[in-house]
Write a structure and sequence with these properties.
The chain is α/β, with parallel strands linked by helices and 425 residues long. The protein folds into two domains: 206 residues, P-loop containing nucleotide triphosphate hydrolases (Rossmann fold, 3-Layer(aba) Sandwich); 213 residues, Rossmann fold. The strands form two sheets. Strands 3-4-2-5-6-1-7 form a seven-stranded parallel sheet, with helices on both faces. Helix 2 runs parallel beside helix 3 and helix 15 packs across helix 16. It is elongated and about 70 Å long. Bound molecules: adenosine monophosphate. The site of adenosine monophosphate (AMP) has 13 residues, from helix 3.
Length: 425
C-alpha cells in the first residue's frame, strides 16, 4: 500500500516524502482510513510503530480540508502523559504540517507558562498537552476547549499508570460532546477498556503487529548475578563489548542516579533521565544520547516512555521491571525499524519471580548466562522485592511536573496492583 492510496492531500504527501517514508506502517494502514472517515478509533500500538503519524496525518488532512473560524480556536487536542512525548508528538505535527496552513503548539509543566499562553492566545488549530498544565491554563481562563472537534488520547495506559484518570475526566468535560475521539494504548487492561467505553463512540479497533512478534526479533539474554555485583557487571559488558549506545533501565530514580555516578567514575559517559530531573536536564541528556556524546542513558520506565530513539543497539535491564508488560516496552526499543537489537537483563535472586512472570507473558524462555567473577549469590533469598522497597523520593514529583499523578486508585483492580506501588519513578 502507498500513502497516495490512503487519500491524503498532496501537501501531506509532500511532507511524508520529505521525511523519507516510503510506505505506511501497519498501524498507519489500519488507522488512517477510519480516522479520515471521522470514526472513533481505539488503536493498540506502542512507540516505534509509527502511531504518531497514524493519527496526526488524518487529523491534519481533516483540519486543512475543513477550515473553520479565522480566529483559530483549538480544534484538535492531543493529550499525552509525559513532557517528552508531548514535545515529540508536537515535532511530528510540525513536520507533517509544514506545507499546510495549520498552527500548533505544545504545553507541559515544569517550564514558564507565559510563552505557552501567549501562543495559544494568538490562535492554534492543534494543541498537544500534558494533563496538568492543560488544566492549569484552563483554570486560569488562558485557553478554551469548547471548539475541539478531535480528541486524541495518546499512550492511554501510561496515563492511567501515572494517575491521570481524574484529569482525563476533567478534560473531557471541557470539550463539546460531539467530537471525534482517538485512543492509543500499548496494552489493554480492564481499566483501559473501561476508559475507552467512557470516551469512544462505536469505535473501530485497530492493532499494530502483536507485541510478541516484536519480542521475537530481539535477541534476549539474562545474566544471573549477585545483586551487589550488578554495577561491576554492566560496566564490564559496556567496556568489553565497546557498546556505543546503551539504554539502561533501573527501577527507581535513586537507583538511576547512583548507577549513573558509578558509570561516570568508571570513565563511561552517562546521564540519568527521570521524573526528578528538570526539563532542561532531561532534554540535554536525551540530545547527548542521541548525538553520541553520552554513551549510556539510565532511565526509569515512566521517564523513558515514548522517547523516540531510533535504532537502539542495546537495552539493559539493570533491574527487571516488576510489571511484565514493561519488559516488553523496554526491550521493544531495540527492535525498531527492522534493526535487530540486544536486550540484556541482570537478574538477582530476588527477581526470580519477575523473570518467571516475564517469560510467561512473552511465551518463551530467555537464555541464561553466568559470567565468571559475577556469579549469583547462592545464599541470597529468592523472595521478591516487597512493595515499598526501593521507593525513594516517593512524593517528590508534583502534578504540574507531570511525573506523578494525584489519584493512584484507578489501578487497584489490576492483578499487578500489589507490585505497582513504586511506579511513579
Ligand atoms: P512513533 O511510533 O510514532 O513514535 O514513530 C516511530 C518512528 O518511526 C519515528 O521516528 C517516525 O519518524 C518513524 N516513522 C513513522 N512512520 C513511518 C513510516 N511510514 N516509514 C518510516 N518511518 C516511519
Amino acid at each position: 500500500m502507498s500513502f497516495q492510496s490512503l487519500g491524503l492531500s498532496d501537501a501531506l504527501l509532500k511532507a511524508i516524502s520529505k521525511k523519507g517514508y516510503k510506505t505506511p506502517s501497519p498501524i498507519q494502514e489500519k488507522a488512517i482510513p477510519p480516522v479520515l472517515e471521522g470514526r472513533d478509533v481505539l488503536a493498540s500500538a506502542q512507540t516505534g510503530t509509527g502511531k504518531t503519524a497514524g493519527f496526526t496525518l488524518p487529523l491534519l488532512h481533516y483540519l486543512s480540508e475543513n477550515p473553520k473560524a479565522k480566529f483559530r480556536p483549538i480544534r484538535a487536542l492531543i493529550l499525552t502523559p509525559t513532557r517528552e512525548l508531548a514535545a515529540q508528538v508536537h515535532e511530528s505535527v510540525k513536520d507533517y504540517s509544514e506545507f499546510l496552513d495549520i498552527r500548533s503548539t505544545v504545553i507541559f509543566g515544569g517550564v514558564n507558562q507565559k510563552p505557552q499562553a501567549a501562543t495559544i492566545r494568538r490562535g492554534v488549530d492543534i494543541l498537544v498537552a500534558t494533563p496538568g498544565r492543560l488544566l492549569d491554563l484552563h483554570n486560569q481562563n488562558l485557553l478554551s476547549l469548547n471548539r475541539v472537534e478531535v480528541f486524541v488520547l495518546d499512550e492511554a495506559d501510561r496515563m492511567l499508570d501515572m494517575g491521570f484518570l481524574r484529569d482525563i475526566e476533567r478534560v473531557m468535560k471541557l470539550m463539546p460532546e460531539k467530537r471525534q475521539n482517538l485512543m492509543f494504548s500499548a496494552t489493554f487492561s480492564k481499566d483501559i477498556r473501561k476508559l475507552a467505553n467512557g470516551i469512544l463512540n462505536n469505535p473501530v479497533q485497530v492493532e499494530a503487529t502483536p507485541e510478541n512478534t516484536t519480542v521475537e526479533a530481539i535477541s534476549q539474554k539474562v545474566y544471573r548475578v549477585a545483586k551487589g555485583l550488578k554495577t561491576g557487571l554492566i560496566i564490564k559488558l559496556i567496556i568489553d563489548g565497546n557498546w556505543k549506545q546503551v539504554l539502561v533501565f533501573t527501577r527507581t530514580k535513586h537507583g538511576a542516579n547512583k548507577l549513573c555516578k558509578k558509570m561516570i567514575s568508571s570513565g563511561i559517559t552517562a546521564a540519568a533521565i527521570h521524573g526528578n530531573k528538570s526539563q532542561g536536564a532531561r532534554t540535554k541528556a536525551l540530545s547527548g544520547f542521541k548525538n553520541g556524546s553520552v554513551k549510556v542513558l539510565v532511565a526509569t520506565d515512566i521517564a523513558a516512555r515514548g522517547l523516540d530513539i531510533p535504532l537502539l543497539p542495546h537495552v539493559v535491564n539493570f533491574e527487571l521491571p516488576n510489571i511484565s508488560e514493561d519488559y516488553v516496552h523496554r526491550i521493544g526499543r531495540t527492535g525498531r525499524a527492522g534493526a535487530n537489537g540486544q536486550a540484556i537483563s541482570l537478574v538477582s535472586a530476588d527477581e526470580t519471580t519477575f523473570l518467571r512472570d516475564i517469560e510467561k507473558l512473552i511465551g518463551q524462555k530467555i537464555d541464561v548466562e553466568v559470567l565468571e567473577g559475577f556469579e549469583p549469590d547462592p545464599n541470597a533469598s529468592t523472595e521478591p522485592i516487597k512493595p515499598g522497597q526501593n521507593r525513594q523520593n516517593r512524593n517528590s514529583g508534583s502534578r504540574n511536573s507531570n511525573n506523578s499523578g494525584g489519584n493512584r486508585n484507578n489501578r487497584s483492580k489490576s492483578n499487578n496492583s500489589r507490585r505497582r506501588n513504586d511506579r511513579r519513578n
